[in-house]
């Protein structure tokens, strides 16, 4: 039922309008009456009205001033002006102030009825549009955490620093408050759930339990003291873990939030899920360029935890170079040897590198962690099936190796597994690599993506990757990227409040003009024509 407010300084006029027709049969109700403009504004503040019918000439506050106030404060309100034959210039001014239509006094019932029917159609259309907009906004809000997690994974992966410049715009557009803080102190916490032996023997139940663990970890930071400071995410390579990213303004705030979060994690996991937990606290860093080092610090700290279902808090040892990744030259050489499946030279390179890393157990375990992370990244990039890569990092695994020789032998075995996976992928015609590239485009289409960047990421020759992708996808890399972006743009066109320039920016296209021409090539119509067609189809559904 739509509510109507009638404003006129003559009681007879107001009563006559109320009795002119059966308002309820058209879905309306005369919910209020006012003698002048100020009284109408008072009613508008306290009630919910959809239609305003007002005279122009009234004491205290006339209709024109009322219309100006309504246009500013209640832009969605439909306005009808009442007028005599001798004040047409007032009507013209009223229309300029936002009136939808006008009626001449004395009001004819049939004219009023037709006008109200017209306004009902407009109100229903507005309601549908608002519903569509609300749904689009809701979907966006639902998708934001997922997109933010993807952005975080890109930042902490091996290509994160290379991608940092184009990712800065994504940080702003996603309103990623924690990452947007300039000069903030950054720290990661790794949280692992520890189940007593035999607690869950059914693999299906284990999966559900992991989901409950993840959900609880996310819920813990939905509190005022963590708002805009802590971000929770899950890394698919570490299935029994959750990670917290903290961005604090001061050292005091960082330590206070860290301590509070640790206490709540241990306490709530034990109370709600009846499990033990390990929280590893990484070293703090300053600024986004060092975010990967901060994440590696937390992983390294976790790797020093004790085995068994025992609740623990492990702090970083404070050694400045402990969480540094492998040297770029060494990392590149090892990746090339992995791609070439040259196991012996890979092992020889590791032996040379470990000699310079120190001989203590901690030095050996730190070196192992760095190499294992490199191998795990190669697994993901090449689409190799290996669900338990987290076990490669597990503390119990590392504690077995107390000499450099034993560590190299273990790492050589893992490298052999990775090389076999790469070899199988190539024998299958590169399907896994092409699919991994396609998935990367599907996830990060809004970022700056080029064939050369992806070739570097997947450690493949650019020309070979181009031919491989076209053979597997049926279209060139550039064509596929444009198609993904245009299809995403088509989805966003459902929101009538988004300008074409906004959509172009959201999908990673340089400008609205290029979006329009590319869109027409794919869909055969312009974006505006497509949007009109979609709205007509939606209206038919209602």
TrEMBL record:
Keywords: Cytoplasm, DNA-binding, Phosphoprotein, Transcription, Transcription regulation, Two-component regulatory system. One of its GO terms (cellular component) is cytoplasm. The modification 4-aspartylphosphate is found at residue 55. It is found in: Cytoplasm. Coiled coil: none annotated. Residues 435-533 form the HTH araC/xylS-type domain. GO terms for molecular function: DNA-binding transcription factor activity; sequence-specific DNA binding. GO terms for biological process: phosphorelay signal transduction system. It comes from the Bacteria. Residues 3-120 form the Response regulatory domain. Transmembrane segments: none annotated. InterPro entries: CheY-like_superfamily, Homeodomain-like_sf, HptR, HTH_AraC, HTH_AraC-typ_CS, Sig_transdc_resp-reg_receiver. Its main location: cytoplasm. This is Response regulator. It comes from Paenibacillus roseus.
